[in-house]
Amino acid sequence: MKISSLELNNFMLFDRLSLRWSPKINIISGENSTGKTTLIKAMYAALKGVSEGRLDRMTKEEIEGGLVKKLQGVFRPDDDKIGRLASRGSGGSRASLSLCIGAEDSVSVGFSSRQDRHADVSVNIGVSEDGMAPYFPVYIPPKEMISATEHFQSLYETYHIDFEEMYYDLTKLLDRPLKKGGNTEQQNSVIESFGRIINGSIVQRDKKFYLKMKGKGEFEMGLVSEGYRKLATIIYLISSGSLNENSILFWDEPETNMNPMMIKPIAEAVAKLAEMGVQVFITTHDYFVQQSFNLLSAYPPAGSAPADIKFISLYKEDGQLCFEEGRTVSELNHNSIMEEFDNLYDREQELIYGN
Questions:
Q1: For a disulfide at 23, which of 2, 245, 264, 322, Cβ 3.0-4.6 Å?
Q2: pLDDT by residue (tens digit) across 300-331?
Q3: How many other CB atoms are found less than 10 A from the CB of residue 130?
């Protein structure tokens, strides 16, 4: 079950937006304050809000409460007033978020700017045999959490900590033990792809994580670079079963604290993750991230079909947020990453050769 479309109306920065997604990989770019992170947080909150309990045993009021609570935790509006997520136009406005999953399932949330802790909710999901939603959303934020897993969960549950709930959710996933039985051949292939980048494997003991590097021994995760910690997070999530064929991965700015030379193998490993069945959403400001995925889509190996990647560019025009989409970067007329890359090249030429 993959997200097929998203519609937002008067939601945060967006007056109106309707997007269709690739079931494999989606790359979202744009300048600051164009709503990249808002998109993936909205989808994550809607999915996570209905995937944390047994839908077959929950009342409509309980489902509504779970969705509202997740939106509050993910976006953290002042005083938990969900109405603050509606567009701040003059007078009252009504916001809505609608998500289609697969061909038939859907989740919709609507509320006015004057509402605090109530929303109109419509959930149409065919549950699995265990009564749960048949998909598993995972959010990886810009800041790594694998080095803080040991204590963060209990602190978050006891104190008011100024972290969005995705961080807490991620530490709960990292707290899971390894699943019984061996990995599939496809899972091992993805784990090996990420493992080659960091030249090692991940060990967990008593909620503490270590990077076991070939020929060098084990290193506490806090002593490892933050870029390696992010990749270690993905490796463990696959090993514990949290990233599987039913998972939807939201990865916010993977380039943060990542050396550019690591981006190409990361893109190739993410492509393998998508082939394993994981739907991937990535937000980025980075030329290397965007172009590495573009090369996978535009120049597939001989005899292979192009990778199923969709590029979304968000931009502002006449004060409105707009978007473009394409199967390659060259299909985007508005691309803030390439525009700044070209501007930098032009400035360099002027400095070298003069006017």
A1: 2
A2: 877 777 789 999 999 998 888 889 999 999 99
A3: 9
